[in-house]
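Q: I'm writing up a methods section and want to include an example of the input and output format. Could you take the sequence below and give the corresponding predicted structure tokens, formatted cleanly so I can copy it straight into the document?
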Amino acid sequence: MGRKAEPSEKNIYYRSREKIKGLSRERAAEKIGISSTTLGRIELGHIAPKPDDVVAMVELYGEPSLYNYYCSNDCKIGMDCRIDEVKPVGLAEATLGILSSVNAFNKWKDKFIDIAMDGDVDDDEKDEFKAICKALGEISTMVERLKLTVETSRFSKAKNT
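A: Here is the clean output for your methods example:
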């Protein structure tokens, strides 16, 4: 006789459900609107959840980070667009991350203007333009981290009221 498959503790969907004391897989699946078997397969990493399932999980578990995780790891469009996975941090860390990224970009500001002036990226500007895009990507990631941090705080406050 085979042994029962156990969800990986590394699976974010499983960990999010487990944070809710007393919420069985069966009860969570019922509230999400899927079968217990489907939720089990999601928690085992055998299938990706559907977008509507993720929305229901976020609302049920109070874990807005599931949106970003899904878009960066399970959604074909999100993965093709290279959406970065971000995790919530403290407000101070998120704010300092943004300021640090903006400061790092400042060294590229004048070159960015020069490149943009003629409306084209010339061959001799490509390496610098890649560096500029990387710096802008860092700012974007830090902004997303701040937004997720604030959203996570909002969900935590809503759960405690």
